[in-house]
Amino acid sequence: MVNWIEHIVNVDRINMDVLPRLTAEQTAERLGVKLETLYAYVARGRLSRERTADGSSFDPLEVERFAAARRRRPAVGGGHSEGRPLMVIETGFALIEDGELYYRGRPVAELADEPFETVARWALAGEWDAGARFSPPAGMEAARAVAAALPAAAGDRDRQLVAVTALASADPLRASLDPATVATAAERLVAAMVEVLPGRAGGGGGADVADGVGGADGTDGADGETHRSASADGLHPLPKRLFSRLATPAFPTAGDHPDDGDVALLNAALVLLLDHDIAVSTLAARAAASARATPYGVVVAGLGALDSPLHGNASRAAYRLLERVRSGEDAARAVADTVLTAHGPVPGFGQPLYPQGDPRARILLGMLAADSRHAAVTSAVEAVTRVLRDRTGARPNVDLALGALALACGMGDDAGEVVFATARTVGWLVHALDEYGRPPLRLRPVGRYVGP
User: Fold this and answer.
1) What backbone phi and psi angles, to 5 degrees, belong to 446?
2) Can you say how many angstroms the Cα of residue 392 is from the centroid of all Cα atoms in its chain?
3) Euclidean distance between CA atoms 297 and 288, whole angstroms
4) What is the pLDDT of residue 70?
5) Angstrom distance (rounded) from CA 452 to CA 449
6) What is the pLDDT of residue 167?
7) Would strands 55-58 and 22-23 be described as parallel, antiparallel, or unpaired?
8) Are both 364 and 254 inside the same structural domain?
């Protein structure tokens, strides 16, 4: 596998003098401080400014570097640092140690090449089945009808969200918390979250028989025709179906026969996103499970928390940033413009759990760089990364990799969100299975009144 960090291309020298600058008000808002505090930083030499007749202005990338340093600042006196967890929750699946991610003690770098359905079944049931295949449950017709009734502006994750509720209403065992029942429901739910997406490429999304999936009884839900064997879909059947629904018709290998390398890349992304410590959405899912919500309720809770520019939606902004650079725009200007509008770190960069760089991004960007067909996107990634590395020290995270994957594979800017939600659904239900075995309502915190 190519080490992307060592893959270097020529990037034109950047003229930093032509970049847009931040006003004092914009800088203070970016840092979350008052103007008086901002000028105190200037007085102490922690930030530089230029003074003109119109007032003070600040270098956006210097501001981003300063903001990143403040986010990395350790807590004082044993308290919690800003934005860090208020509790510690034991988990038996994902481990982050020495800058690497492990699932049950196995490095994710070793699992990224394994079929997603195999890894997911192992996560849910402890069974390693190289031939694992996920089929959607009964109720797909209702789920598609509900998704189709959404407004035209609805996105694919909106369709996935309403499909979960529709499928819950059709499951007679929805309230069962039996581990085997929950694991089976999880597999069917993940397959349904793919199946409910509208086909975009070559008719790949609408015909169950062509996709090798059908009803829970092995037949097509509409007319009872036996569907094609899932093994005919190759090594990564679920990622292949997902690819066919996300790629646009104009993409050269879209449709029912996407390129094997692109499917392997999408498969790796699904594996790498399956779980990751106690992320915000995972905390929401565990809290729901603590109250003994059904598996469907757990997924709805997770999807709600995932719908955030600081969590599950970050890859959309990263996609747009890369798209501008791939189209020929100067990388530094695109980054500076992004700093003006971002609500946190530059999207696609920085991960406090990986000071030396996100291994998930390293794996995915390495796979992308190894494919010459995606050289233009790889060059855009490298140009943006060089700007951030040189000016702020920030390194790429998995959101940048998701944005790059979607852009390179002819998908829309929201595709990374769908990939994230589909993969993390497994992780949420792994956590739910653990939480169902703990005392109920243990994650119900106690409020401390501080009002008037």
Assistant:
1) -105, 125
2) 23
3) 7
4) 66
5) 9
6) 97
7) antiparallel
8) no
Q: What is the pLDDT of residues 223-277, one digit of tens each?
A: 333 333 333 456 789 999 999 999 987 677 665 678 999 999 999 999 999 999 9
- Give the CB-side neighbour count of residue 15, counting CA atoms within 13 A: 3
Determine the Cα angle at 339 with ends 37 and 47, to 5°.
35
Which residue is listed with tokens 């005919």?
A: 232
Compute CA distances 166 → 96, 180, 302, 433, whole Å.
36, 22, 17, 22
Q: Report the side by side order of strands in the sheet with 22-23.
A: 22-23, 55-58, 50-52
The amino acid that residue 257 corresponds to is H
Q: Are residues 201 and 123 in the same domain?
A: yes
Structure tokens, 108: 């994710």
The whole domain housing 117 covers 97-310+414-436
Q: Is the separation of the CB atoms in 402 and 420 below 8 Å? A: yes
Q: Residue 22 corresponds to which tokens in the numbers above?
A: 């931040």
Residue 370 has a CB neighbour count (10 Å cut-off) of 16
What gap in Å lies between CA 63 and CA 46, rounded to an integer?
10
Contact 333, 18 (CB under 8 A): yes
Written as one letter, the residue type at 32 is G
d(CA 42, CA 48): 6
Helix (H, G, I), strand (E, B) or coil at 104: coil
In a domain, 91, yes or no: no
Plot region of 449 (φ>0 → left; ψ -120 to 50 → alpha; else → beta): beta
In what helix (H) or strand (E) does residue 56 lie, and over which residues does it extend?
Answer: strand 55-58
Residue 119, both tokens: 């890894």
Which pLDDT score is estimated for 81? 41
- DSSP alpha helix (H) spans, 14-155: 24-31, 35-43, 60-72, 108-111, 116-125, 140-148
Residue spans of the chain under pLDDT 70: 1-19, 70-86, 200-234, 250, 253-256, 342-344
The total domain count for the chain is 3
Per the listing, tokens 């140009």 go with 383
Do 213 and 332 belong to one domain?
A: no
> CATH no. for residue 328?
1.10.230.10
Predicted local confidence at residue 217, as pLDDT: 39
Q: What is the pLDDT of residue 8?
A: 36
